[in-house]
Inverse folding.
């Protein structure tokens, strides 16, 4: 991934700037991916609330899967009250 | 810090959480959901993380999932570290040298129930003004599913396997809220992922209470890896834990116990056990004795809580 | 002492423990957390009294164990506070894992250590086992032989720790009971002088909500080594920083410190090395030996980590015989910790200097000036007969 720093340049005392995990894309972990059927979606935001990454982007009441990070756990599909999300096999 | 009002709708929460993706926790990780929801529920806080799944999975150098101030020191000391931070922020903020923000100590059941319990007791006894949140995945998951005193009766862990002679852990789960509430702190409560509004609002309530004293939350956070279930069932399993009365949802406020989610027609415990390989062996006829003890405990514990609820101030 | 320096100070008569507490009060520490243990207890009690009487505006956290004491101090330090703790022996051992954490996190914590023997068997009296037990933890380590040094070192400790080139925790040790409980006269700097000397803490890691960082992350095989090398360098930087602080303190107080204390070493052939209160007793012994025509001298260790390699090489290579006295031992090792530090400094370059190691005083067994004279005579004989291959024990019933 990134080239790590020499001892002279490395962060002080085992610390790092916050939020840097975004540079590490976990999307390649998944074997199946969620697909949202926006006809069925009622914008309840339950999928967004429960995503463990989070890999669901939210603007207002609109949601979109962030495939850069989605690990394919399937919780969003399971919890969606309208069964608007389907897990489909990921392509290699 | 202004009082955090209860959240009514999910859309009341901020659009972006300060818990960022790219962390290495398992797909479907209950503690990850817990950590994320904490940062959605609380606008600003310093997280004092104990060693464990969340700490390790979210801060592998040079990546950190936390866009909040976050510290980690050792396995059993996040409570006294929090005490130190609270004291420092109180003094420094009075002199205009620092900004006072809520302090949330976050630890798994390993650090909370076992190795850190003594230090937690000290911090609670001192009535230090912080929030302690235990994300309970019922075993030492980060080191590979070893039993903790939070593992339930019969749990098959690597140090209490479902063996030929002994069918899993024979000791019962510690009554953590009982221990904690016995320190006469302002607020203690259980919560879990399924009852999201209850969980979010308890986190906010705890932060409010931390202005005057310690507030303690015990959150059941199912672990697909350790409990051995399909990752998409995490929230469902938290629901079943509640509906079988195995994980009652209640709070103790100023010593008065109140059940927040009344389970009037409990689902059979067997339903909870059969979908996780950690517990499934209890359904075998030869393990009937342990299963009966677990079921009896669930019923006894529920009755105990209902009795305490009617008894006025009990802590 | 220069008249100006004297005008900045006032004379006190306090125990070593109270001298430390007095220094901590003057240093305007923000957070204190400690757990009582003999013989440190009075540091903690005196500081509590200062806080509860309103003489010291600090937060005092009464923890339930030493592990929690250092943990609370680490927490406070992470939040940007000037933080202090104190302990001895078992307490130090109990917080052992936190010692490494404090140093690895680069926190400018100061700790007082009333040196005491370690269990088992249990013993509450002075030796240096606890002190030497932490020598690899990455802490700067000092020893004060009586109240004056201990007071001065405690003040200086904050300045050294907080220097941005250092950012390492500092331990100031002093003999349990002998120094901690005995009242001696000493000069304390006036409050405003200390305030000016130390200021408030502005350096080192701190919790900043506007610039959130994660402190204490998991450093895997690909980064841990760099963090530790960085820490090692900080300890190397400390040599220069300590020199500067000693100099500045000397200008302020009139007392000029050096890592190694010398007494009659200019033309000494044989020197006795010791640390702590024994150094004072050794001076008496050497005075007597000199009167008898012996070319003896004393070297006292004030600064143990960083080990003053350059000064030690220059000094120890001058002697024909080096008789090391240690209130500690390392079972199974060739010799005790101080012997090993000196030997690795002067050998193999200075083969002419011969050394012998004496373990004495464990568990608070007393050492007199006559005892040191005996050690000198025995040590000299062993060196001259080339019989120095074993650690010698002085004062134990054979």
């Amino acid at each position: 991934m990134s080239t790590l720093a020499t001892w002279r340049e490395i962060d002080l005392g085992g610390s790092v700037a916050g939020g840097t995990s975004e540079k590490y894309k976990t999307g390649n972990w998944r074997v199946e991916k969620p697909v949202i059927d926006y006809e069925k979606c009622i914008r309840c935001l339950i999928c967004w609330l429960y995503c463990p990454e989070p890999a669901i982007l939210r603007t207002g009441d609109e949601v979109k899967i962030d495939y850069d990070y989605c690990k394919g756990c399937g919780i969003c599909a399971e919890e969606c009250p309208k069964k608007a999300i389907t897990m489909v096999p990921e392509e290699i | 810090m202004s009082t955090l009002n209860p959240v009514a709708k999910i859309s009341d929460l901020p659009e972006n959480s300060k818990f960022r993706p790219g962390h290495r926790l398992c797909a479907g990780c209950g503690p990850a959901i817990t950590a994320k929801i904490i940062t959605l529920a609380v606008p600003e806080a310093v997280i004092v993380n104990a060693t464990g799944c969340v700490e390790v999975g979210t801060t592998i150098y040079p990546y950190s999932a936390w866009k909040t101030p976050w510290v980690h020191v050792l396995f059993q000391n996040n409570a006294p570290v929090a005490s130190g931070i609270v004291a420092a922020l109180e003094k420094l903020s009075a002199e205009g040298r620092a900004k006072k923000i809520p302090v949330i100590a976050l630890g798994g059941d390993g650090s909370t129930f076992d190795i850190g319990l003594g230090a937690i007791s000290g911090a609670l006894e001192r009535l230090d003004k912080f929030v302690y949140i235990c994300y309970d995945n019922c075993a030492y998951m980060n080191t590979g599913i070893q039993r903790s005193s939070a593992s339930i009766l019969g749990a098959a862990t690597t140090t209490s396997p479902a063996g030929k002679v002994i069918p899993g852990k024979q000791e019962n789960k510690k009554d953590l809220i009982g221990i904690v509430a016995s320190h006469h702190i302002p607020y203690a409560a259980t919560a879990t992922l399924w009852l999201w509004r209850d969980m979010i609002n308890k986190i906010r309530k705890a932060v409010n209470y931390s202005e005057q004293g310690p507030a303690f939350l015990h959150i059941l956070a199912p672990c697909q890896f350790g409990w051995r279930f399909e990752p998409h069932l995490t929230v469902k399993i938290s629901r079943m834990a509640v509906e079988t009365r195995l994980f009652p949802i209640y709070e103790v406020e100023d010593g008065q116990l109140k059940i927040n989610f009344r389970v009037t027609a409990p689902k059979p415990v067997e339903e909870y056990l059969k979908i996780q390989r950690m517990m499934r062996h209890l359904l075998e006829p030869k393990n009937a004795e342990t299963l009966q003890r677990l079921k009896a405990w669930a019923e006894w514990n529920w009755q105990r809580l209902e009795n305490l609820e009617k008894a006025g101030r009990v802590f | 002492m220069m008249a100006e320096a004297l005008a900045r100070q006032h004379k006190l008569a306090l125990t070593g423990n109270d001298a430390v507490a007095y220094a901590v009060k003057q240093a305007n520490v923000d957070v204190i957390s400690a757990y009582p243990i003999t013989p440190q207890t009075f540091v903690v009690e005196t500081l509590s009294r200062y806080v509860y009487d309103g003489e010291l505006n600090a937060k005092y956290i009464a923890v339930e164990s030493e592990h929690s004491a250092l943990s609370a101090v680490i927490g406070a330090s992470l939040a940007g506070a000037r933080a202090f703790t104190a302990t001895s022996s078992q307490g130090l051992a109990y917080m052992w894992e936190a010692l490494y954490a404090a140093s690895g996190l680069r926190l400018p914590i100061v700790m007082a250590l009333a040196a005491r023997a370690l269990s088992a068997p249990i013993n509450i009296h002075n030796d240096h086992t606890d002190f030497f037990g932490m020598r690899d933890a990455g802490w700067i380590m000092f020893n004060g032989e009586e109240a004056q040094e201990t007071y001065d070192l405690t003040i200086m400790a904050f300045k050294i720790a907080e220097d941005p080139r250092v950012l390492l925790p500092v331990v100031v040790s002093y003999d349990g009971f002998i120094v901690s409980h005995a009242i001696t006269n000493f000069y304390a700097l006036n409050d405003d002088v200390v305030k000016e000397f130390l200021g408030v803490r502005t350096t080192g890691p701190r919790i900043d909500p506007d610039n959130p960082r994660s402190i204490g992350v998991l450093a895997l095989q690909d980064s841990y080594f760099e963090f530790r090398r960085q820490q090692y360098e900080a300890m190397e930087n400390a040599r220069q920083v300590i020199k500067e602080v000693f100099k500045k303190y000397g200008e302020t107080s009139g007392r000029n410190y050096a890592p190694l204390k010398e007494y009659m070493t200019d033309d000494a052939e044989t020197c006795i090395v010791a640390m702590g209160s024994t150094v004072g007793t050794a001076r008496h012994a050497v005075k007597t030996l000199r009167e008898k025509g012996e070319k003896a001298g004393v070297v006292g260790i004030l600064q143990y980590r960083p080990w003053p390699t350059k000064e030690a090489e220059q000094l120890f290579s001058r002697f024909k015989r080096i008789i090391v006295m240690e209130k500690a031992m390392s079972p199974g090792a060739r010799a005790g910790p101080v012997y090993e530090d000196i030997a690795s400094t002067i050998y193999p370059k200075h083969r002419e200097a011969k050394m012998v190691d004496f373990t004495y005083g464990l568990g608070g067994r007393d050492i007199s000036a006559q005892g040191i004279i005996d050690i000198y005579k025995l040590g000299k004989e062993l060196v001259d007969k080339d019989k120095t291959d074993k650690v010698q024990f002085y004062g134990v019933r054979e």
